[in-house]
């Protein structure tokens, strides 16, 4: 999922609320302050994309009642739900597998995350492994 500069604030709200619901012990605000002082706007968007991808991956392992609770909270605040974020994440992974080519490092990281989260079937797993290995060479 590519985040445009005009969407940054909205997706940052999503990241903050999801992180608060899913991993309350993690002080994400410290990381965001670091982004603002040490990173370019492009790097900030890439970091936001990666953080949202991590939350989407982690959400697949939550019990259904926890996912529903988080979705209800997000929806009540007018924000994208965890389920909706996971759909976007899945679409990105499917596009990368279909293209069978990685251009950006962030794409390789996203595929690696899908592998680590055990979200791919056997054929997709092999394609992803090959793409990641090829990207590094």
In short, what is this structure?
With 137 residues, this protein is mainly α. The chain is 75% helix and 0% strand. The chain has helices spanning 8-22, 28-38, 41-59, 64-76, 82-99, 105-116, 122-136.
Could you tell me the number of beta strands? Answer: 0
The best one-word shape is globular
Strand content: under 5%
Kindly, what is the distance between the CA atoms of the first and last residues, rounded to a whole number of angstroms?
A: 24 Å
The value of Rg in angstroms is 15 Å
The DSSP helix count reads 7
Q: What is the string of SSEs from the N terminus onward?
A: HHHHHHH
Mean pLDDT figure? 91
Instruction: Tell me the structural class.
Output: mainly alpha
Helical content stands at: over 70%
Low-confidence stretches: none
How many strands, what sense, and barrel or not for the largest sheet? none
List its salient traits.
137 residues; mainly alpha; 75% helix
Overview of this protein structure:
The chain is mainly alpha-helical and 137 residues long. The protein is 75% helix and 0% strand. The protein contains 7 helices and no strands. The radius of gyration is 15 Å and the shape is globular. 20% of the residues are buried.
Blueprint (SSEs and pairs):
Layout: H1 8-22, H2 28-38, H3 41-59, H4 64-76, H5 82-99, H6 105-116, H7 122-136
Helix pairs in contact: 1-3, 3-5, 3-6, 6-7
């Amino acid at each position: 999922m590519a985040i445009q500069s005009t969407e940054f604030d909205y997706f940052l709200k999503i990241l903050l609320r999801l992180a608060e619901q899913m991993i309350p012990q993690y002080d994400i605000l410290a990381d965001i302050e670091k982004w603002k002082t040490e990173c370019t706007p492009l790097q900030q968007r890439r970091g936001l994309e990666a953080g949202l991808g991590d939350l989407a991956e982690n959400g697949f392992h939550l019990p259904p009642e926890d996912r529903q609770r988080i979705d209800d909270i997000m929806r009540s605040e007018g924000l994208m739900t965890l389920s909706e974020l996971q759909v976007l994440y899945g679409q990105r992974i499917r596009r990368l597998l279909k293209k069978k080519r990685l251009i950006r490092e962030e794409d390789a990281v996203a595929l690696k995350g899908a592998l680590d989260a055990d979200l791919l079937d056997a054929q997709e797993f092999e394609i992803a492994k090959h793409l990641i290995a090829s990207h590094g060479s």
